[in-house]
Amino acid sequence: MKPRIEVVGIDCLMLRLFDEIDETHMPWLLAAARRLREVFGGALLDLVPSYTTLLVHYDLSQLVDDQAHQRVTEALHDLQPDTDGQSRELNIPVWYDPSVGPELEALGRRSGLGTAGVIERHSARIYQVFALGFAPGFAFMGLVEECLASPRLQTPRKRVPAGSLGIADRQTAIYPLVSPGGWNLIGRSPTRLFDRQLDGYSIWQPGDRVCFQPVDRVEFLRLGGDDTPYEEAP
User: Fold this and answer.
1) Does a structural domain hold residue 232?
2) pTM of structure
3) CA–CA dist 175, 179 (Å, integer)
């Protein structure tokens, strides 16, 4: 690890800890986030963790640039990875079905696993939440197995239903709201991912671990899922 501090705005610094995405980096990022909150205290306006970086937004009325740099440096002193096991593990039900996951069968053919194999392999892995973004409650998770990795669609869809589970390259995610998107859809979850009553409005945060639990259509509907088949928007 070779930390670098980059200026990205008049009141924002970017702490870059790594250059490559790796699940083993998250304990370091979580530890750095905790230390940054401690040293900045009330001068911290926002802290945004991502795959390899942390964006530090601070209050200019309390700190000048040199002081902010000094606090980031202080946070890095004797930094050790966060191994206290406080990250949460979330189980998310998913109905894997071609009617709501239009790329499921194609991925089964391309990978040679068949539809059942894709479901088994995708749901057998524990995924790390790397970052939140794109839409409220949208979590970028990974890493999916190489055999399931799929490039984004050449032409993004105009309308992806809420709850749709997709794959893009070696990442996987669920669309929390109806929105455009170009990920390969393989199923749908009934879980509400964005809620204004939740702290941070999202059921998950960077560092959480996620398991996808396959359910049948009956259970999906019982949990409040919408089984309307996917149709391309005109």
Assistant:
1) no
2) 0.86
3) 8
Q: Give the pLDDT of residue 199.
A: 64
φ/ψ of 10, rounded to 5, equals -65, -25
The string of pLDDT tens digits covering residues 144-164 is 999 999 999 999 999 999 999
189: nearest Cα among 168, 206, 175: 175
Among the listed ranges 36-40, 81-85, 114-118, 223-227, which one has the minimum average pLDDT value?
Answer: 81-85
Secondary structure (3-state) at 110: helix
For residue 137, how many other CB atoms are within 10 A of its CB? 22
CATH code of the domain in which 68 resides: 3.30.1360.40
Q: Which phi and psi (to 5°) does residue 30 adopt?
A: -65, -40
Task: Write down the residue that tokens 């200019």 correspond to.
Answer: 60
Q: Are strands 127-132 and 209-214 parallel, antiparallel or unpaired?
A: antiparallel
For 212, the domain range is 89-222
What's the length of the chain?
234
For helices 65-76 and 26-40, angle between their N-to-C axes, nearest 10 degrees: 130
**Residue 225 near residue 144 (C-beta atoms within 8 A):** no
